[in-house]
């Protein structure tokens, strides 16, 4: 069975910044066809749950209080890449809009709910290594 890397929050794990999850029934249903490999890059990078919200600001990842967590995000992205390679994952389904997992559209770095074009830290790294990243709204081709 082919393996797919998946944001743990989409599978119902309470790992988001607010200690919540974003279970996505369509993503969870992929387990009928694929082996799902859960990952939370923020936790893997050493950040606690719950944690202060973070956004990409220029070349850095900052918490709303100004704390620089760029290295945590890079460490978590490296872990996600390692996990994908270890499991021969060529596809990842990641949480849209996230500073680590977002694809194509992420929060704008002003903590005002606005969005901007761009990719999260993990998405950028996985993509650079040839792994196809899909957001949860883009999984039709996997169904």
Give your account of this protein's structure.
This protein has helices at residues 25-28, 41-44, 70-86, 121-128; strands at 3-7, 35-39, 54-57, 60-63, 91-94, 105-107, 115-117, 132-135. It is built from 4 helices and 8 strands, in the order βαβαββαβββαβ. Helix 3 packs across helix 4. The protein is 23% helix and 22% strand. The chain is globular, with a radius of gyration of 14 Å. It has one domain (3-136). Strand 3 (54-57) and strand 4 form a beta hairpin. The two termini are 14 Å apart. The chain has 143 residues and is α/β, with parallel strands linked by helices.
- SSE-based structural type: alpha/beta
What is the CA-atom radius of gyration, in angstroms? 14 Å
Strand order of the largest sheet: 2-1-5-8
Unreliable spans? none
The domain tally reads 1
What count of helical segments does DSSP give?
4
Number of strands: 8
Average per-residue pLDDT, rounded, comes to: 97
The fraction of residues in strands falls at 15-25%
**Beginning-to-end CA distance, first to last residue:** 14 Å
Q: What would you call the shape? A: globular
Percent in helix = 10-25%
| Sheet of most strands | 4 strands, parallel
Order of helices and strands: EHEHEEHEEEHE
């Amino acid at each position: 069975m082919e393996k797919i890397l998946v944001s743990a929050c989409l599978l119902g794990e309470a790992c988001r910044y607010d200690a919540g999850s974003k279970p996505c029934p369509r993503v969870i249903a992929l387990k009928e066809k694929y082996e799902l490999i859960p990952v939370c890059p923020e936790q893997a990078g050493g950040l606690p749950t719950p944690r202060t919200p973070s956004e990409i600001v220029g070349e850095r990842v900052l918490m709303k209080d100004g704390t620089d967590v760029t290295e945590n995000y890079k460490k978590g992205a490296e872990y996600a890449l390692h996990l994908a390679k270890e499991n021969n994952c060529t596809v990842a389904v990641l949480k849209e809009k996230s500073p680590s997992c977002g694809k194509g559209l992420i929060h704008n770095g002003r903590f005002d709910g606005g969005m901007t074009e761009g990719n999260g830290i993990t998405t950028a790294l996985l993509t650079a290594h040839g792994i196809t990243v899909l957001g949860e709204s883009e999984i039709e081709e996997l169904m």
